[in-house]
Amino acid sequence: MASSDKPTAVHFTLIFFVMMTLILAVMTYLNWRDLSDAEAAKVSLQNQLGASETGITNLHAEIDSLKAALGYDFPDVGAAGQQGTVLGQLTQDLANIGRDLQEPTVAATGVAMRNRIDQLTAELAAAQQSLQNVNDELLAVKSQYQSEVDQIQESQQSSEANLQTFITDRDEIVSQKDQALSQLRADLNRVQTEKGLLEDQMLSLRRGFDDQLSKINKINAQLREELDNVNRVSFEVPDGEIRRVDNNTRTVWVNLGDADNLRPQTTFSVYDQDHHGVGRGPEDIKGRIEVTRILGPHLSQARILEEDLIRPMSEQDVVYTPVWSAGLTERFAFVGEIDFDDDGQSDRSQLHDILQQSGAEVSVEIDDEGYRIPEDGVITKDTKFLVLGHFPDPSDYAAEDPNRERIARMQREASELTTQAERQGVRKLSLNEFLAFMGYRPSQRLFLPGGDMPYTLQSGGEDAILNPDVRFSSGRTSELFRRDYNAKGELVKPGTRNYGN
């Protein structure tokens, strides 16, 4: 058979196998390259993972070191204000330890506390220097005293020598005195006779002088009381001043705090910053506040109990109360019945609670039965005020009523305490004035417009124009003034905001 040039099945098979071999070789090469790249990427990722784990380990070690330095053994760092975490405890400690010196960061708080320590150190150094100066003055006084003692001793020695000389000449002197004594006895008899006549004349003159002196004392007491009512002179000074006022929350802040021994619930009367003297009269008071929180050494928060709408409270207004002074214990004397709200019930125990809360004391008082407590108590120069309560009229009781004797005892004690107060220069106040000065106002005395209860007006009512002796109002007002209510739904006095009821 003759050969043919056409491809046969063998040719196609060979070509197929060659093509498949080439394809397999290319695919093998490509798979090998991908495998190599994957291995390289795997090694790189493992290296990066090792570095990250090392960094995390170092970071945990640094966090543990920071916890140890701060002294907080909490598992979580947390956030500010989160309980049981490092940042939560740190924020709480900054507020407790730093107080008014707290800053947003620990470093800033530390700097503020360091500055405060430096300030206190400087003040301590100044105090120590002042003490050294006092000690130097004391040594100088001791030296001068020793010099005077030496002079006295020398004078004493000289006096003893003179005494010996006197004793030597005594007999001669006695002899001469005996002769003179006889003459003096004769003169004495004559003088005694004349003295008897003069004593009778002096007794008569003394009675006349005593009557005149009694009248003059009464006139002086009356004039002194009238002058005090006209001039309203007061030697009291403000206790502090208002630093900020928040009219939205009816809150004020004053420059008094725990360093001044101020206590919560202490009440103050408020005066204008351009006042003419505190403690002169209730008419000068523009409002009343009560301390609610002590915020720092010289800062506290108070709520507004009462405010005059015409004269609202503002910054730099001053505050005053007679029952509290920074670093001092004020003492008072009380006589008469103590009734804050004229309900016929004694409020003496409530008065004692108020004074104790403010750190004040009662030096002497006459109780509701007319007995002095303590029995030997007197008014001294340390007594700040003599407070006069209510004195019942004895004529309101029958002759056999025991209340007449009680009232008589109370009046006798009041007269004696008043005399003591005048001699010691202690000012007398009515109970209402005393309560007004210390910023206390019982809610029962609140003037209710439209009510039927009569209320004593400070300057009198409309009738006072025709009759100056009338000082009462019926309490009835126009309908325009009967629509003001407080938080309890009670009517309040027009022109006055009452926030403490």
In short:
With 501 residues, the chain is α+β, with helices and mostly antiparallel strands.
Features:
single chain, 501 residues, alpha+beta, Thrombin, subunit H, five-stranded mixed β-sheet, 48% helix
Task: Write up what this structure looks like.
- With 501 residues, the protein is α+β, with helices and mostly antiparallel strands.
- Among the domains are: 73 residues, no CATH class; 52 residues; 81 residues, Beta Barrel (Thrombin, subunit H), CATH 2.40.10; 107 residues, no CATH class.
- Helices cover 48% and strands 14% of the residues.
- A 6-stranded antiparallel barrel has the order 1-2-5-4-3-6.
- A hairpin with a 4-residue loop joins strand 1 and strand 2.
- The radius of gyration is 47 Å and the shape is elongated.
- The termini are far apart.
- The C terminus is likely disordered.
